[in-house]
Give the backbone structure.
Amino acid sequence: MTLKQFVAKQFIDIIQWNEPEEGILAYRYPMQDMEIQTGAQLTVRESQMAAFVNEGKIADVFGPGLHTLNTRNLPVLTDLMNWDKEFESPFKSDVYFFSTHLQIDQKWGTATPITIRDDEFGAVRLRGYGIFSYRISDPRTFFTQVSGTRPTFYVGDLDGQLRNTIVARMTDIFASSKISFLDMAANQAALGKKIEEEMKPNFASLGLELASFVVENISLPEELQKVMDQRIGVSMAGDLGKFTQFQAAEALSAAAANSGGAAGMGVGLGAGLAMGQTMMAAMKEASENEDDAGRKRFCVDCGQPIPDGAKYCPSCGREQ
């Protein structure tokens, strides 16, 4: 290296960075063959923070504004003192920029169902997905724990870590919440807020702030959803006898509306006879059920039916 090249490479007196693209979390200002001049001006823009690393350690962290750097790294003097080392200074200083604006629309989701114990349905497997947003809040922690000395650190480099952490914590939250699946599905906003509060310490340990967490959907696998739909249908029906009567009446109305022509009349007549039999059977069953209900004894405490002659309720053990 000639003396002219050595002098030309030395002085950096203005340091600034504009994000060239989305998704950059940390960026090391290029310092190859260059040294930071004492008194250099560091410009940090809104939505940025910068860390000044002197002799391998973070000397200071700067927020938005114009800052003057003071360092032991005196370019000309130190390099001239180390001419036997090909003018390479042993004192190295670096500046790392950190993007602190929100990283929005980050996706999370369960790759496989999460198994939890539900008070109403027993063991169930849940799937979920949604979005979250975060930002760098502590550049010092983020630098030492995550990004290190890499020239550029991207959002994509954190995706797997954050998603897996979220799913792992969700399993613990679901297991300890004792909230039924139906309540979870009906209160997704409240569920997202609870997960957000539980997840904030995990993000903070990486120098990040979890700004929002949204649960877009909580669902069961398809085969369990079918079972759930059947159970909901039975619950909605309530009195099966009355539900059967209602179905029969609806079918009769449909048959009467499509009874045109001789064939249609025959079909309608057959359908009417069949529906009439169904209705009679349903009404008989409903009547028998009402008679049985009238004869049955019920626990004075829990309301469950008890066998004739029993002195104690088989459900709660209360003496009758």
In short: The chain has three domains: 3-99, 103-223, 238-306. Confidence is low (pLDDT under 50) at residues 73-91, 262-267.
